[in-house]
Specification:
By secondary structure, the protein is mainly α. It is about 40% helix and about 5% strand. The protein has helices spanning about 5-15, 20-40, 75; strands at about 85, 85-90. It has a domain at about 5-40: Histone, subunit A (Orthogonal Bundle), CATH 1.10.20. Strands 1-2 form a two-stranded antiparallel ribbon.
Length: about 100
Amino acid sequence: MALSKEEVLHVAKLARLEFSPEEIEKYQQELNDILNYIDMLNEVDAAEIKPLAQVNDDTNNLREDEVRKSLTVEEALLNAPEAEDGAVIVPKVVGGE
């Protein structure tokens, strides 16, 4: 599969990008190289390969959950520009006026 110059221009327009003629040729070649590589990968017979969640045998070594000293609600609200009933008051950002 090869992208034509027109297809590269179309993709650039969709992305709202402007390129010089030299850049268009450069990106056309780069995109075609990428697509050719993808075609090569698609030819690999992977039917017998099991899907992987991760590529090595490492496991996450998570720490134990432990309660630590932290700010009280009152101390945390001292940093808020405005607070009410134990909550930070922020401007409405959804819905408009």
